[in-house]
Every structure is written in structure tokens, then in C-alpha cells.
Structure of CobQ/CobB/MinD/ParA nucleotide binding domain-containing protein:
Amino acid sequence: MENIRQAVERAKGRPQQHGGVGFEPSLQPNRRSFGDTNEPKERAEEIELDLAHLHSKRIVAYDGKDLHSRHFDMLRTEVLRSMDLKGWKTLAVTSPTPNCGKTLTAINLALSMARQPERQVLLADLDLRKAQVAGSLGLKCREGVLGVIEGRIDVDRAIICARAGGSRLEVLPTASTSDSSDLVGSSAMKNLLHDITGHGPSRIIILDLPPLLTGHDVITILPQVDCVLLVAAVGTSTISEIEECNKHLQTTDVVRFVLNKVPESEAGYAYC
């Protein structure tokens, strides 16, 4: 926590740039299962993403040659090293409050991981109150998470296979709803998480969760994830907010801390 405090304090009052990140080790019923049915499995819908749209949203990690992707490649290496060491498969991404860049970080990290041919990566949008994954990727969400937990569609049909550059990323998007708390705590949501995490040892699941301090959704889901990536932002997050998050995450493994909107003068300084 002291390293985080120093990083945030050091960054105050300096010009900011987008895309810089810093990270450090840990803080202290009946259904059809995905991939487990005797019926022929439908292929996930395949979509080639619009690279110009991605670039406009600062999504760059599909291209390993893009200089801005190096931050996410470094983060990928550190996160996967920790996850592989402990056999973890499910990573939740959250932030203290909105506007910290958690969804952008989750998407870029997922695309960076997906460039590795031996990895199968699924990015699921569980920020049901303010879903942003589909819009950020330029995808249309017809059913997604809500359709699955409300029983209108099976998980395998709700997943979209998105391709961009060298990345092949599975995406489980969602539309927004005001009933997020009831849905997140439902047995249908537990079944959904069980289904997507039981699909083989090579799959990494990245869950884009709501901001931690804006409600109870994250606390409800945490027992079902292996580890957490906490994303804060210079000029947005306060030390007290980060400390409050740390209290809520004391029983959860925080695999890394990411500091977004890092000052330009420290853009190349990745570790807090």
C-alpha cells in the first residue's frame, strides 16, 4: 500500500497522458452447461473488428507492433506469471470508482493475452449497470449475459468470437440494466460463472466488473473469482478510496495494481 501511495502522490500535479500504466504485486437448478451437452454445439458468431474503431477507443493491444501495446504486454506477462503459478483461471477487473479506465484495461489485457496462440481468452462484461465492452469493441449485443441469466439463450450462443490483428478473443457482452444487484446475486449468475470457467485448462476468463465502491455487485461476485486486478487513475482515484478497496479485498488475491493516466514524464516507468 505504501508503494501505491507514493506512486499516486508522485503523479499529482503533472501533465497526464492516456495509456500509461503502472502495476505491482498483491495487496493484501437445471441448465445446459457450456461445452457440456450431447446436442451439437453451435459455433460462436465470428466478427472481424473494425481496427479504426478500436484505435479511436484507444484499444491497441491486438497489435504487438504498436508501441502503446507494450504496457499491456508487460502487464500480461506479470499477471499470467502469477496466475499460472497458482493455477488461477478467472481474473476480475475492477476500480474504486468510475472513470478509472478499467474497461479499457480489461479489453487491452484480454487482447494482449489472446495474441498468444496457446491461450484461449474469454472477456465477459459483468458491469450490468453500465456495460461498455460491446460498445468499445464496436459489437452489437442482442442477448449476451442478460439473455443467458434470464434463460433466453445458452452461453455458447451468446459468446462472440472477435478477431483483430493477431488476436482471437471470445467476448460475452451484455446490455445495461437497473436490476444488476438482483441479477448478480442470482443462482443463474452463479451457474453462468460455473459454466464459463469449466471449459478447459487453457482458457483464461477476464471479468469486467463494476467499480468496487459504487455498490455490492463486486463483493457478491468475488467469492467466485480467483484473483483481482485493481485499476486506479491519477487525478481520479484518491488514497482513501484505494485504502477502502484494500479493506474489501483483504480476503481476495489482488494479482496486480494498475495506475492509469500516468504523467507523461513517467510513461516508461511501469512499476509503482
Q: What stands out?
A: The domain at 2-266 is CATH 3.40.50.300 (Rossmann fold).
